[in-house]
Design goal:
210 residues; six-stranded mixed β-sheet
Length: 210
């Protein structure tokens, strides 16, 4: 996870967490003088190939989100005191802001960090409460404004609905045909207990404190 420099005194470092992806390399023909030449059929097939590759990638790992943490202390990634500044949906090299409130960003960030198994409302509330990252959320800013948020067991279901609503809005903006319930999944146990899991390819960007 190498750091990348930016103009001025502010520096950015990048921490990438991605699931299995796939790359696409297009093929084309050369004519006698070495110039690329596509027929109409070639262009149609090329576009179809790209769309199928995109659909397969979305099916395999879900959409790509970029989560921005700011107020990072140098040399520490995802340390307590950072703030979850925003969440972007990345689609076709464009950023689309997911319209999430601070509480929703906290829940989204938590689910993004724990994608391997579904968690019920009690587990989610307990996990957020126990994690120093969320208990000291935004403390590095040194602001008088309170940047911490708690998530109660009884409130998780409604918060999940609101995140799905935000996902629906941003997918429409990005012209991405996805069902939010396929991204933020609800999975039932044999006793009808509901667990929630985020099916997505997530990347964290960290902005230094100074």
């Amino acid at each position: 996870m190498p750091p990348a420099s930016a103009a001025g005194s502010r520096r950015h470092s990048f921490s990438v967490c991605q699931r299995d992806g796939m790359s696409h390399v297009s093929s084309w023909r050369l004519n006698g003088v070495g110039r690329g030449m596509f027929s109409t059929d070639d262009l149609v097939l090329e576009k179809l190939d790209l769309l199928l590759t995109e659909a397969a990638l979305l099916q395999a790992s879900g959409p790509h989100f970029r989560i921005v943490h700011r107020f990072r202390k140098a040399g520490i990634l995802c340390g307590s005191g950072e703030e979850i500044a925003c969440v972007h949906l990345m689609h076709r090299s464009r950023e689309h802001v997911v319209p999430l409130s601070l509480t929703l960003r906290v829940l989204f960030d938590y689910l993004a960090k724990h994608p391997r198994w579904p968690q019920n409302a009690s587990q989610i509330a307990a996990g957020i409460a126990a994690d120093p990252f969320y208990r000291k959320h935004g403390a590095n800013a040194g602001s008088q404004a309170k940047l911490t948020r708690s998530v109660s067991r009884s409130g998780v279901k409604e918060l999940i609905k609101r995140i799905r609503r935000a996902l629906d809005l941003v997918c429409r903006e990005a012209s991405l045909c996805l069902n939010p319930e396929d991204v933020l999944c609800a999975e039932k146990t044999v006793m009808n207990e509901v667990g929630y899991r985020l099916k997505a390819n997530c990347q964290w960007i960290h902005v230094d404190l100074a």
